[in-house]
Amino acid sequence: MSRSWGWIAVLTVSSLVVALGFAGDLGAVVRPLAVFWFFLVCPGMAFVRLLNLTVWLPELTLAVTLSLALDTVVAEVMAVNGWWSLSAGLLALITLTLIGAALQVGQIIWQQLHVSQT
């Protein structure tokens, strides 16, 4: 149970750090690392965690793959429709990540309610 809440916290904090890094100045070293971590892992992990996989390596592999796919889809939709904007793309990925984290919270609450009823 704590593992699920831990990832929700990591996803939320990572989203916040990337948003603040875009809006402000995190420094020359911190910003690229935070952005790289966010784009590579966070959007995918937000949704892969919903699968309740028990082994970490397939979970991480799926998260990276899905993150890269989501990054590509967001960029492609923006490019094809002429909406190209770094801030809009970042906002879209942060929104997707936070939606996935919120779904994880709902899943945990649902599981707790289901366990308490049986």
In short:
By secondary structure, the chain is mostly helical. It contains four helices and no strands. Helix 2 packs across helix 4 (86-117).
Q: Could you characterize the architecture of this molecule?
A:
The structure is a single chain. This protein has helices at 2-23, 30-48, 56-80, 86-117. It has 118 residues and is mostly helical. The mean pLDDT is 91. The longest helix has 32 residues, at 86-117.
- Return residue spans where pLDDT drops below 50 for at least 5 consecutive residues: none
Give the proportion of residues in helices.
Answer: over 70%
Structural domain count = 1
Count of β-strands: 0
Sheet/helix structural class = mainly alpha
Order of helices and strands: HHHH
| Largest sheet: number of strands, sense, barrel closure | none
- H/I helix tally: 4
Features of this protein?
118 residues, mainly alpha, 4 helices
Describe the secondary-structure layout.
Layout: H1 2-23, H2 30-48, H3 56-80, H4 86-117
